[in-house]
Amino acid sequence: MERDEATLRIFVIPEEWGLKGVETVSMKQVHPLDARLREDDRESCESVRTGVRLRRTGGWGCPRVSSIIWAMKVSELGEFGLIGLLARIVPQGGPEHRMLLGIGDDAAAWQGDDSTVLATTDAMVEGVHFTGGTPWWQLGWKALAVNLSDIAAMGGVPTHALVNLSLPGDTEVEDVKQLYRGLADLAGRHQVAIVGGNITRAPLIMITVTVIGRGLVEGLLMRSRAVPGDLVAVTGYLGAAAAGLRALSEKIDVSPQAAAYLNKARLQPQPRIAEGQLMVKLGVRAAIDVSDGLLADLGHVCKASNVGATVRAEAVPVHPLVEGVFRNDARRLALTGGEDYELLFTASQRVMEEVRAALGAECPVTVIGEITHGTGVVLLGEDGKPYHIDGPGWDHFRKGG
Ligand SMILES: [Mg+2]
């Protein structure tokens, strides 16, 4: 089999990222993780899948992470691989920064003089997160909501927000006012002050919000605190935001009642601020908000906690209106859809019962599985056997770009 060696690009994946192989080779025809350098022969490599052997051309020298990694496209490395790489470049803070949590949880946390400080930021980009024609008020609401949800996932109290807005020059002033009314309405609901930001001209609309908050004295919800034996539960219903997006893109005819529910789920998520705080007070220690999709987000918890999890597919809460429209596909949307902004958390049976009782009917809590000593998330069907489903969740560069 002939290969054009000019298409071969080498990069190095550190083993701690959990990817297969320490040194891998990318070429156009082979998935990056399917090829590796041979340990005994530093001058050649072979594809794991096809067995094709390739020789290095001259001038590459001995591979070092910093000198070689640039040869990858971000779409090959993926969002989480890229975060791992960049985290090695930036300073993480010394003792004077009193860091409690750096890169890798829903928000960064450090010890302030009076309380724990929380900080998070998230962007919404036209063409990636929303399309032209999305109502401006909802854009403002959602841009803040996704950040407040990250504070909720820490069990914290959001206090201040900064808004960084990029706009084309021909944007109507009235539209920008509507955007800010959406921001202001949600901020007012949670007593968040919008204290500044920046506006710049750009070819498309981009709204980046940064939220600062504080942790409760009882502690923080962290991705890294799930322990084997914990039950896994989720607030509310899952899959409605993804169902709304699909109904829109595929122009599916739905009832006015279903359309209203799906649109609200997609454009006007309700961050679970009070619920997150209540969880901390009742002794919950591990949580994440569902932004990438249930299975992907539970995977983040498992990885951070060095545990595994089982999820019973039929236990995952799907709203009847979503089930009514999407039937058999509703469960897949609930498991992988993303952008639900519900809280996924783990706790002992006793704590779980207390949380369920305290949240009441306003915010249903559904136990969907269990934390195990294993690794990764195992999805189980009704017969208790592994249940296959396509798509692990959202990775911005691999699936969205
Ligand atoms: Mg999050």
Q: Give the CATH class of the largest domain.
A: Alpha Beta
Strand content: 15-25%
Question: How helix-rich are the residues, as a percent range?
Answer: 25-40%
Reading the helices and strands in chain order gives: EEEEEHHEEEHEHEEEHHHEHEHHEHEEH
Give the name of the CATH superfamily of the largest domain: PurM-like C-terminal domain
Structural class: alpha+beta
CATH fold name of the largest domain:
Phosphoribosyl-aminoimidazole Synthetase, Chain A, domain 2
* Euclidean distance between termini CA atoms: 32 Å
Spatial strand sequence of the major β-sheet: 6-7-8-11-9-10
Task: Work out the radius of gyration.
Answer: 23 Å
Low-confidence spans? 1-49, 52-71
Based on Cα principal axes, name the global outline. Answer: globular
Q: Identify every distinct bound molecule in the structure, by name, code or SMILES.
A: magnesium ion
Which second-level CATH architecture of the largest domain applies?
Alpha-Beta Complex
Mean pLDDT: 83
Q: What's the tally of helices?
A: 12
